Amino acid sequence: MTMHDNRKKIELEEARKAGHVPAEVDENGKEINPHIPHCIAIVPWYINTHNTPSLSHQKKRKSVSNHTKCDDRGCKTSQTDKNRKNACQNCGAMTHDAKSCLERPRKVGAKRASGDVGTSSDIGTSSDIASDKKRETSELTYDGKRDRWDGYNAEYYSHLVMKRYEKNDLSVDEAKVDEAKVDESKQMDFAKVEKRVCTTGGGSTGTVRNLRLREDTAKYLWNLDVNSAHYDPKTRSMREDPLPDAYPNEKFYEGDNQYRNSGQALEYKELNMHTLEAFDKGQDVHIQAAPSQAEFLYKNFKVMKEKLKSQMKETILEKYGNAADWDQLPRELLLGQSERQVEYDRAGRIIKGQKDAFPRSKYEEDILINNHATVWGSWWNNHQWGYKCCMQTMHNSYCTGAAGIEAAETANMKNFRRHFRRLCR
Predict the structure, then answer these.
(1) pLDDT digits (tens, 9 = 90+) for 364-374
(2) Out of 45, 109, 393, 406, which could bridge 384 as a Cys pair, Cβ 3.0 to 4.6 Å?
């Protein structure tokens, strides 16, 4: 469409809106309101309107039933006295197969199986053939497949809800009774509390109601100050203490955090942390997917942990002794006295007596290998480490003794002479 055609089309629409030009007519001969927005009046490309203006795509189409129903479902339609092809091998009906047959499995069916010895696959009893019955055919549309209320009967509502309210409808005199009082027969056992008793099959013989008593004060009524503890009406939770300055013995409620940080809540947190750490270390365990497995592994972990702690304690006591056991301590340590005399100067250094022990490294020291009399690194020469006993610079070499010392001195003399000649030039 060119610019001239587009301008001409806009002028025509303005003239129709002003009433100077007659309105458009659809395929049924009805006028189209020119004030309808363009986004509504435009016809989609997939609807064939033969290039004529139309609003049929905006009208409600004739609803097609989601599925066809059969009022006489299950009624008999026809019955024969001989076996037919593709019929049920058990009863002989044509409306189902042998796998879906609801009749009693017969000893000799309407059509014998091909595997029966001495019989043919086409031979049957041809007696007591079941009659065919009507079936409800279901041809669901796109909306029918996604209908949440498919198969819902409106009579259920009137039967379950409306009749119950009509039965419980109070008269004018009865309505004057306090609404807070509920008939004991209508309480539905909310106030009933039964003790849990384990049975042989597991479980319990009763249930315990976990509902707040109507006489108890609600959480949000303990402190009406706006700046007090926050109350979430959606979850009915108040984590902080609404009365933090009150006397502890007079408090009835101290916030939900009191229950979150005490009792079995802490045990569940420890179980959850152990499960996460075990999963990170490669253990195939999940507290939501397999809670029994997670709890069993956690119990075994605690048993093994206590066992290792006891073993470690026994090992330490066996090596260093028990300071709390006064009977096994020597007399010198028991009285804290000895015959040793130590003198110190003003700086705290020992002048006479016991000397301080030098701290030792965590690495192994003074280990002599390969017949060496000294350790590696005890000798330094020409920017190289070596053994002082044989003056060798090769690590993990065998000690040559005096021969190695003589060879090293000879090499040093040669190096000295070579260096001296260079200086003389």
Answers:
(1) 777 888 888 88
(2) 393
Tens digit of each residue's pLDDT (9 = 90 or more) over 55-82: 888 877 655 554 444 445 455 666 777 7
DSSP H helix total and E strand total for the chain: 11, 6
Give Dmax over CA atoms of the chain in angstroms: 137
Collapsed DSSP state (helix, strand, coil) of residue 277: helix
d(CA 144, CA 69): 13
Q: What is the DSSP string of 128-142?
A: SPPPEE--------H
- Kindly report the pTM of this predicted structure: 0.29
Neighbour tally for 43: CB within 10 Å: 16
Other C-beta atoms lying within 10 Å of the C-beta of residue 283 = 14
* Regions of the chain short of the pLDDT cut 70: 1, 61-78, 112-127, 134-138, 168-214, 323, 325-338, 355-360, 416, 420, 425
Number of C-beta neighbours around residue 121 at 10 A: 12
| Amino acid occupying residue 295 | E
Among 74, 167, 79, CA closest to 129: 79
Instruction: Give phi and psi for 195, each to the nearest 5.
Output: -80, 140
Question: Between helices 291-320 and 264-280, what is the axis angle to 10°?
Answer: 90
